[in-house]
């Protein structure tokens, strides 16, 4: 039962689902690298070798693989496993449970928002009350580009988003597609 619940949670998190806001996208790269010389690529399959990512659906991983391959094939030549490309592409999905402290205060008085005049006596004001801790899930999609000759990383793109549970697979893939496209739109970097 616990495994099924974790699986559902991880699939929902991984697909960067949730709010209507765009995910946060950040990139970093080797500034001295000549990205204009890149002509061919190969996408490496994600490894499911840890207990965190073993619960990620193989269908979701194949969706990411096909999407990354298809998007980069619009700009570069995709090569088979027997040939050596200019760069390799790897991708990872990380899901974390995060804590957010919540607080609210009780102001007494009157005014436009009920927070107008504060009485000078401490009898009419209470300090902020601890509302507890809100637990939420943060999903990250990480796409790395690695030089095929040196095996050194040359570029990394990360998309992060707060996630909701319970989305159907179609909606999850729509959100995941958006995240992949937003990350790959930043490659190659503009110097």
Automatic annotation (TrEMBL):
UniProt signal peptide: 1-20
Pfam families on file: DUF4136 (PF13590)
Record keywords, A-Z: Signal
DUF4136 domain span: 25-189
UniProt keyword annotation of Iron present: no
InterPro entries in UniProt: DUF4136
Keyword Lipoprotein annotated: no
Protein name (database record): DUF4136 domain-containing protein
Organism per entry: Cellvibrio zantedeschiae
């Amino acid at each position: 039962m616990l495994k099924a619940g974790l699986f559902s949670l991880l699939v929902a998190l991984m697909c960067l689902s949730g709010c209507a806001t765009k995910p946060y996208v950040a990139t970093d790269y080797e500034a001295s690298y000549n990205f204009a010389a890149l002509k061919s690529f190969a996408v490496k399959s994600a490894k499911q070798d840890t207990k965190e990512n073993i619960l990620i659906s193989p269908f979701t991983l194949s969706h990411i693989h096909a999407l990354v391959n298809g998007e980069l094939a619009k700009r570069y030549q995709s090569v088979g496993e027997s040939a050596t490309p200019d760069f390799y592409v790897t991708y990872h999905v990380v899901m974390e449970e995060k804590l957010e402290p919540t607080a609210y205060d009780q102001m007494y008085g009157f005014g436009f928002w009920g927070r107008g005049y504060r009485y000078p006596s401490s009898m009419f004001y209470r300090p902020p009350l601890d509302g507890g801790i809100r637990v939420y899930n943060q999903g990250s999609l990480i796409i790395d580009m690695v030089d095929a000759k040196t095996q050194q990383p040359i570029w990394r793109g990360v998309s992060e988003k707060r996630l909701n549970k319970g989305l159907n697979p179609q909606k999850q893939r729509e959100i995941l597609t958006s995240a992949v496209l937003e990350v790959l739109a930043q490659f190659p970097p503009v110097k």
